[in-house]
Amino acid sequence: MMQMIDLRSDTVTKPTPEMREAMASAQVGDDVYGEDPTINRLEAYAAELLGKEAALFVPSGTMGNLAAVLTHCRRGDEIILGDSAHTFLFEVGGVSALGGVQTHPVPNQADGTLRLEDIKNAIRPQNIHYPTTRLITLENTHNRCGGVPLTLDYMEKVGAFAQEQGLQVHLDGARIFNAAEALDVDVRQLVEPVDSVMFCLSKGLAAPVGSLLCGREGFINRARKTRKQLGGGMRQAGILAAAGLVALQKMRLRLAEDHARAKRLAEGLRRVSGLDMEPTPPPTNMVYCSLEEGIPYAGEEIAGFLEKEGVLVGVTAKRRFRLVTHYWIRDPDVKNVVQAFRKVLSF
Ligand SMILES: *Cc1c(COP(=O)(O)O)cnc(C)c1O
What we know:
It is a single chain. The protein is an alpha/beta fold. The protein folds into 2 domains: 14-249, Aspartate Aminotransferase, domain 2, CATH 3.40.640; 254-344, Alpha-Beta Complex (Aspartate Aminotransferase, domain 1). It is 41% helix and 17% strand. It has a 7-stranded mixed β-sheet with strand order 2-8-7-6-5-3-4, with helices on both faces. It has 14 helices and 13 strands. It binds pyridoxal-5'-phosphate.
């Protein structure tokens, strides 16, 4: 069978041999009783790393965001978030369907931010007719906006503004370590302005399963109960946390490699005729590109041709692709992907 170069997402990362060893020898217990020593270690490590009081291991980023929103909000409350936010677009409407929480989207700018003015205008005044605005949700790095990191300065501005307005801030930090790496700032500083943050072990950090929700101790205690209510209380899940510890301790430190390969991939693709590249180099591990107008095929068709060449890409719009670099993408793959595009687009 052909060895595929899979750039659809960094979620396709399989566990490393070191993770599999750690999983096989992990000490475990019943985590619903708080007795899984490996999960307890992972939660303590994550809280320390992010500079928060406590952390909660959850099966997925989607559940982490959902548990956060449900813990911050009551039914009928409203959250302000970007119209390109993962929570708004790709989490099956969970906060509304399961939490009775209303979403109030405001435009995401190209750099992934929400304008403070737009947030301000979205806050509901005191009035018997209105829902209560409770929470602002940000996303860093911003997936749909090209994997762009939100700067420390911006995070601090939103944090200060929220405090002034009496609102909470939750950060969808699925790829927060990519952001910290790209900005060259301490992740603790970057998440200091937010009340809660979720990050994923299962993306660029290459663990097979899991995310962490971090915040104040009281908040995390309540979120633990929300997680149980959502059916996310796991038992001997220390075998998963063991891989997560390797992800956090080791894989976190090599994300710059993925960013460098994304830049090289974009440079290579820029020289392929038939492709429109974004004007700026990719800020983290995501490369977005589109088919030029003259190309007489849809994105899905081109993706099909690429698959025959051993390359898998994400199709994010009719003629737009997303290519994500990760641990299992090596230097020769970058060259091979450019070659595959050139072959497929030469008519
Ligand atoms: C992947 C992702 C999530 C959800 O994580 P899952 O583990 O896939 O549920 C949330 N937010 C962002 C920005 C993501 O990229």
